[in-house]
Protein 1
Amino acid sequence: MPRPLPQAVLLVDGYNIIGAWPCLKKTRDYSGLEAARGELVEAMTSYSAFQAYDTQIVFDAHYQNTSSNREVITELVSVHYTDFGQTADTYIEKICASLRPQITQTRISRVIVATSDRAQQLTVQGYGAEWLSAQQLCWEVEATVCRVRKKYQPRKQSSSRFLASAIDAKARQRLAELRMGFK
């Protein structure tokens, strides 16, 4: 059975984000571009799962003589390497143009493009897409990580193995009174 259309599509200009996020620039400079791409994909995978966005991370291949390639990471995240001579910007513009009818027919509620490229911002907004700067995306990813940690953070463990130790003194006193038959 084909999966339903996503409510929101997030298109990420991969190298633009790597160049804008300090943590990814540091990784790129010390460990190489492949490591920085991996960190970006990992961050987007977690973020997309939490937000339920269909995320496409796009990397330029215009400096390499290779054909386009698509790598599916999860059900919600895929990585696209463009054709030789094609930039991530033109690829993203084509996707925005192809998704525009689905937005107008309300099959997709939002198309969001993450890039700090000003010309790209204006172009994709012309197609009805929203724009998110690299810095805004960074803040949203960090806020999402904090929300997830808070949501799944283990409860404070009692130092005792008895249930009575985990409740406050007033409740413990009331339980003792009930046990002794006092009202």
Note: The chain has a mean pLDDT of 84.
Protein 2
Amino acid sequence: MTYSIIGLDHIQLAAPEGCEVKARHFYNTVLGWTEIPKPEILRKRGGVWFECGRHQVHIGIQKDFVPATKAHPAFHVQHLDQLREHLIHNHIHIVDDGARVEEGVRRFYINDPFGNRLEFLEWV
């Protein structure tokens, strides 16, 4: 084999047309992720991109949008309890999942403003 896949560059979440204001509020203001400029050639498509740790999360426009309610990205977090309190303070509904506690994983789910499922987890 001559190629090597070395990891993730970005993930893309779909959202409806006109989502940019809500996306910026949620991903930038609530989660604290830095917005990064899209390449000029892609700006006309709409959507918005963010930096999350060493990776990027792209919010892309999808016609006939349907949220991803099962498939989801999982974000590795330090100080999960602090994130939890921050989200609750911002009126974000938390769904706990203790299925992996015996493995040393604490986690919960939330939905973004468009109904996409997001997982946040911490290895303890």
Note: The chain is about 20% helix and 35% strand.
Protein 3
Amino acid sequence: METLVRRMFTKLTGLAAVTLLGFTLAQPAQAGQHTPGTGRTAAVAPAYFEMTDGYSERNLVVKLVKEEQIQHARQLVGGETSERPHVIGRIVKHPAEYNRLYSFHYDPESVSFFDYAIEVCDATLSYTEDHLDEVGGPFLPGRIHCPWNSRLVREVTAP
């Protein structure tokens, strides 16, 4: 009986963690930014940043499409801020044209930054690559990935 209770508690804790991460990433999509005086919405040009996790041999390229995230990333790379230095996002299980070193990439609409996160989404880039078929199950539930040692290294040019 104790084992059953322990398993149920573990599953419920994992479900609660994934739910909280979902709320963290569920921000309204922003297709563009309002241009004052024109009454129009201007598209935001995507920006690309190289990210390290401090352990893996290869870095991941992250595509940012939200103006607020792009500005924050540039401040991090430029040393203007040290707040929310780590990257979090929802994994897409196939390579992107701008990120051919890995078989996965982050959904650009889901990328955000954090100071601290729960352990259920922490994994190195290389471990994630090696266990990609398990992503979304018990490993990285909800496909949410938040390497605790992640940091942006530099901005890179678009492919």
Note: Residues 83 and 115 are 7 Å apart (CA to CA).
